[in-house]
Design a protein that fits this description.
The chain is mainly alpha-helical. It contains 17 helices and no strands. It folds into two domains: 46 residues, no CATH class; 208 residues, MetI-like fold, CATH 1.10.3720.10. The mean pLDDT is 84.
Length: 288
């Protein structure tokens, strides 16, 4: 059936028809944004494999004339970098495991149970997000010095075992788990622990992956607390260990970049392995 001329004239114009070249402009903007985001990383890789002469030459070298593979060995010779790496992974791993174990349990209680003071308690937990860590830092340091936890793993890990953000993120996701599934489990005679383990946790896998990655990355890059709570090289993490390459009159930027690259590699691999779950978790958490 032919379309009337009047209806055809009212056809909604596409973006390309309204703004010729809009697609090209959009692609250019995206390409520029990607270049700005990737350029520092590319230069860090280049700097990590430059010679001392190129670093101290006074001009930016986009790519070294000869790749200095020996900088990897120099990194471990100049400082106990293997120990720094082990400390960072161990501390970040312990804190991440704590968040993944405790945050979903607390979030499940706030999302699916009613009890006196529930709203007030949740508001109080969220209010802790507005308290800067600097406010808690001095009391924590004094307390840990009194109980002998300075320069120890428990001193590095304890202040970050739980966070309001983790509880909030998991609560937002668990709220969207259908109540019918939980009620069906109760009708079948399952206890709350069985319901949590068999019904709720499998539904929250994407959110757990997002929470685990965010926590691990944040703790791998934590600088201030390890700086003030550690004294010996045996307990320092990578961000603190990189400061050892700062000299009185110059800085070994190639070794600093190599250490930063070693810090970036495990985080990048973790992101690549969990990318699908991360995108799904962020999308679903935002919708809920």
């Amino acid at each position: 059936m032919p379309v009337p001329a009047k209806s055809a004239s009212r056809r909604r114009l596409t973006q390309e028809e309204l703004f010729p070249g809009a697609r090209v402009v959009s692609l250019i903007i995206v390409a520029l944004a990607a270049l700005i985001a990737v350029a520092p990383l590319v230069y860090m890789v280049s700097l990590a494999f430059q010679s001392d002469a190129e670093v101290a030459g006074g001009r930016a070298v986009l790519w070294p004339e000869e790749i200095q593979w020996g900088n990897i060995a120099r990194l471990f010779q100049a400082a106990p970098f293997g120990r720094f790496f082990l400390n960072s992974v161990l501390v970040a791993g312990l804190i991440t495991c704590s968040h993944l174990l405790l945050a979903p349990v607390v979030a499940y209680a706030f999302a699916k149970f009613d009890f006196p003071g529930k709203s007030l308690m949740f508001i109080l937990i969220l209010s802790t997000m507005m308290i800067p860590f600097f406010v808690r830092m001095i009391p924590l340091y004094v307390w840990f010095s009194q109980i002998g936890w300075l320069d120890t793993y428990q001193g590095l890990v304890t202040p970050f075992l739980m966070s309001a953000f983790s509880i909030f993120l998991m609560r937002q996701f668990i709220t969207g788990v259908p109540n019918e599934l939980i009620e069906a489990g109760r009708v079948d005679g399952a206890g709350e622990l069985r319901i949590y383990r068999s019904i709720v946790l499998p539904q929250t896998k994407p959110a757990l992956v997002v929470l685990g990655l965010f926590t691990f990355v944040f703790q791998m890059n934590e600088f201030l607390w390890p700086l003030i709570v550690t004294k010996s090289n045996a307990m320092r993490t990578i961000p603190i260990g990189l400061s050892l390459f700062n000299r009185e009159s110059f800085t070994l930027w190639n070794l600093t970049a190599m250490g930063s690259l070693m810090l970036f590699i495990p985080v990048c691999l973790l992101f690549v392995l969990t990318q699908r779950h991360i995108v799904q978790g962020i999308a679903m958490t935002g919708i809920k």
